[in-house]
Amino acid sequence: MLGCGAVTQREIRRQQILDRARDVFAKKGYHLAKIDDVVAAAGVARGTFYLYFHDKRSIFEELVSRFFQRVALAVASIDTDQPIEPQIRANFSRLLDVFLGDPGMAKILLTDVTGLDVEFDRRLLAFYADIEALLLRSLREGQSLGIVQDGDARVVAHFVLGGVKEVLLQLTRAPVPVDREAISENVFGILARAVLVPRPPKATKKAAKKRA
């Protein structure tokens, strides 16, 4: 029992340091933040920090890697055999939940993470490349089925990713709570007009009776 308690307390302390480090990085940026800032924010001794993390880079990398995982899990591949609209809405809604649920990490990922070093930038580019590949595959399949407008699917994928990233960045900077449902509707409306083939308007009951 004592062993289990010790492990639990260790994990609590580790998460406490991670959370405070996130706040420091979000406020100061990676390059200006110092280990002393993290230690002070977490309320631990400098020696305690080194029991959990090797250096500033290691704690920063873990924070970003964890957030990457949450983002990747939020974006599901589009199944073109199923209705498209609910899937797009659900993907963006889940992304909103991830980014608005952790605005500190959202700011870090969208503004401060590039330029750390060559290897880290390569990982970041690989992450976005995976998301782009998933989106590109869905767009091309949608074009073959006639539900996505013709054009260079790669350019469309860049447009969609860039637009969504900018919307998420501005939302994380918003000084007041945002209406997530309304934002999801607006974003879907823009994407639908720009990407999806327009659907013919539904016939009204009156018109249907007249044809009958």
As a whole number of angstroms, the C-alpha radius of gyration is 22 Å
Distance separating the two termini:
76 Å
Number of DSSP-assigned strands: 0
Q: Averaged pLDDT, please?
A: 82
Structural class: mainly alpha
Helix coverage percent: over 70%
SS summary, helix count: 10
Domain count: 2
Keywords:
single chain, 212 residues, mainly alpha, Arc Repressor Mutant, subunit A, Tetracycline Repressor, domain 2, 2 domains, 10 helices, 75% helix
In a few lines, what is going on in this structure?
The protein has 212 residues and is an all-alpha fold. The protein has helices at 2-28, 35-42, 46-52, 56-74, 84-101, 103-112, 118-145, 153-172, 180-195, 205-211. 75% of the residues lie in helices and 0% in strands.
Folded structure, characterized:
The chain has 212 residues and is mainly α. Helix content is 75%, strand content 0%. The chain has helices spanning 2-28, 35-42, 46-52, 56-74, 84-101, 103-112, 118-145, 153-172, 180-195, 205-211. α1 (2-28) packs across α4 (56-74) and α7 packs across α8. The protein is elongated and about 65 Å long. The model has no long low-confidence stretch (mean pLDDT 82).
What is the fold's blueprint, element by element?
Blueprint: H1 2-28, H2 35-42, H3 46-52, H4 56-74, H5 84-101, H6 103-112, H7 118-145, H8 153-172, H9 180-195, H10 205-211
